[in-house]
Amino acid sequence: MYRHLSIAVTCFLLLTSTCFAQQLRLVNRSLIKDSVIHLNKADGPGVAWISHQEFSNGIIEFDVKGKNVLQQSFVGLAFHGQNDSTYDAVYFRPFNFQVPERGRRSHSVQYISLPKYDWFTLRDQYPGKYENEVDTATDPDKWFHVKLVIEFPEITAYVNGKKCLSVTQISTLKTGMVGYWVGNGSSGEWRNISFK
Fold first, then answer.
1. 82-104: b or e for each residue (b if 16 or more CB lie within 10 Å)?
2. Are the C-beta atoms of residues 60 and 50 closer than 8 Å to each other?
3. List of residues 6+ apart from 14 with CB closer than 8 A
4. Are 36 and 20 in contact (CB under 8 A)?
C-alpha cells in the first residue's frame, strides 16, 4: 500500500512541477496558467518573460495557438530581451495562414526588433525581407509547433517541421531574456517550450 501511495505522490509532484516550474514576469498582460500558458488580450504588445532564463544562440521549440480572427492574433516568442521594450521577436499571424490572397499570406510570420524596427517599419523599409508565408496546411485555429534556430546573426523559423522564415537580425542583440509574446489586441497560448 505504501508503495502505491509513494508512486501516486511522485507522479503528482512530477506533473505539477512540470506545469508550474516556470516563473514568469508579466508586462502588459495577465496570465491564466493551467496546463498551458495563456496571455490575455489587451492594447499594446505584451510579454511574459521566463524568469532566470537567458538565451544567446541555439534552438527554442514550443507549441503555440492563436486564432483565425483578422487583426486579433499575433503570437510568438521574444528573445535577446534587454528590458521590457528592447528585444527581438518572431511571431505569427494565424489569420493569414490560409487566406487565398498571396499578399496577405506573405505576412504570416514576422521578425521584429523593438523598439526601432516594428513590423510597419520593416515592411516599409524592407518589403518582403522580414516576413513570409507559412505552409497553408497549418490550421490557424489549432496548435502548431515552432522551432526557432538562432545563431547570431541568423534566425530561421520552422512551423510543423517546414522552414518558413530565414533572416539576418537587424539588431546587434546577442543575448538576453526570453518570453512569450503577443501583439496589440491579441491573446495567445503556449506549451512545451524547450531550449537546446
1. eebebbbbbbbbbbbbbbeeeeb
2. no
3. none
4. no
What is the CB neighbour count within 10 angstroms for residue 16? Answer: 10
Q: How many helices (H) and strands (E) does the chain have?
A: 3, 14
Query: For 136-181, what is each residue's pLDDT tens digit?
Result: 888 999 999 999 999 999 999 999 999 999 999 999 999 999 999 9
Element housing 75 (H / E): strand 75-81
**187 and 44 in contact (C-beta within 8 Å)?**
no
pTM tops 0.90, yes or no: no
**Is there a contact between 93 and 110 (Cβ–Cβ < 8 Å)?**
yes
The amino acid sitting at 162 is K
Q: Encode pLDDT of 86-140 as tens digits.
A: 999 999 999 999 999 998 999 999 999 999 999 999 999 999 999 999 988 889 9
Which fold does the domain 23-195 belong to in CATH? Jelly Rolls (2.60.120)
* DSSP designation for 118: -
Helix (H) or strand (E) holding 37: strand 37-39
